[in-house]
Specification:
Number of helices: 5
Strand content: under 5%
Order of helices and strands: HHHHH
Distance between the termini: 26 Å
Number of strands: 0
Organism: Marinobacter algicola DG893
Structural class: mainly alpha
Shape: elongated
Protein name: DUF1127 domain-containing protein
Helix content: 40-55%
Length: about 110
């Protein structure tokens, strides 16, 4: 390699993926009157949160796992990179993988613009 090639390679920065805050369950409403058959609202809110989280991740996997079988050129045309999709698939459940992938996409776009 020539010195000029090494110098131009040093201008490239490693892509740093965004750090996202995980979601958390919503606080249940405070009731003024509790009846004997009032369900445990905190438990219901937590259960609803986890069902929504699992459905969201299942939906993401159903959309993006087939994309991993495609060529890198096709993924590039769509605007994604294979490493970003694999990274998003391994995120914790509380982090919305679709939002994380979109933030990655925006960050890459901003990095390419001078």
């Amino acid at each position: 390699m020539t010195e000029q090639e090494i110098e131009t390679m040093s201008h490239y920065q490693d892509f740093r993926r965004p750090h996202l805050r995980p979601d958390s369950p919503a606080k249940p409403p405070e009731l003024e009157l509790y009846m004997p058959a009032t369900p445990p609202l905190a438990f219901m809110a937590t259960f609803e949160f986890w069902v929504r989280i699992f459905r969201r991740r299942h939906h993401f996997r159903r959309l993006f796992l087939p994309l991993l079988k495609e060529d890198d050129e096709i993924l590039e045309d769509i605007g994604f990179e294979r490493t970003d999709i694999q990274w998003a698939l391994n995120l914790p459940l509380k982090v919305d993988a679709l939002k994380a992938l979109e933030a990655c996409r925006r960050a890459r776009g901003n990095q390419l613009q001078p």
